[in-house]
């Protein structure tokens, strides 16, 4: 695959990360910030795999991407449970419901 295409795809994904970073910084609720951080993590996984393809070592980079995906998933779950126990999510449900 052409390295120019892979670099262009990685730059497009990084631009999407900047849009998600805006949601993390200015999100009106904690849920928006958690989801924005999760989206950034997902896009980072894609960039890691694209980097592996660029260096023609996908088998090495896929292990890193899977580990990062696992950490991203567990971190998102941990934050959601923490804020649920703290009562932030329950307050949001009462306000909207």
Report on the architecture of this protein:
The longest helix has 29 residues, at 58-86. The mean pLDDT is 87. The protein is elongated. It is 90% helix and 0% strand. The chain is built from four helices and no strands. Helix 1 (3-26) runs antiparallel to helix 2 (30-54) and helix 2 runs antiparallel to helix 3 (58-86). With 97 residues, it is an all-alpha fold.
Ends: how far apart?
50 Å
Q: How much of the sequence is in beta strands?
A: under 5%
What is the count of DSSP helices, taking H or I runs of 4+ residues? Answer: 4
Mean pLDDT: 87
The parts where pLDDT drops under 50 for at least 5 residues are: none
Number of strands: 0
The helix content, as a percent range, equals over 70%
What would you call the shape? elongated
Q: Tell me about the largest β-sheet.
A: none
What structural class do you assign from the helix and strand content?
Answer: mainly alpha
Sketch the topology as an H/E string, one letter per element: HHHH
Q: Calculate Rg over CA atoms.
A: 17 Å
């Amino acid at each position: 695959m052409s390295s120019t295409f892979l670099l262009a795809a990685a730059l497009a994904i990084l631009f999407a990360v900047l849009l998600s970073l805006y949601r993390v910084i200015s999100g009106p609720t904690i849920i928006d910030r958690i989801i924005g951080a999760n989206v950034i993590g997902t896009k980072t996984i894609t960039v890691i795999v694209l980097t592996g393809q660029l260096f023609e070592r996908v088998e090495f980079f896929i292990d890193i991407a899977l580990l990062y995906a696992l950490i991203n998933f567990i971190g998102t779950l941990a934050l959601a449970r923490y804020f649920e126990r703290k009562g932030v999510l329950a307050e949001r449900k009462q306000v909207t419901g």
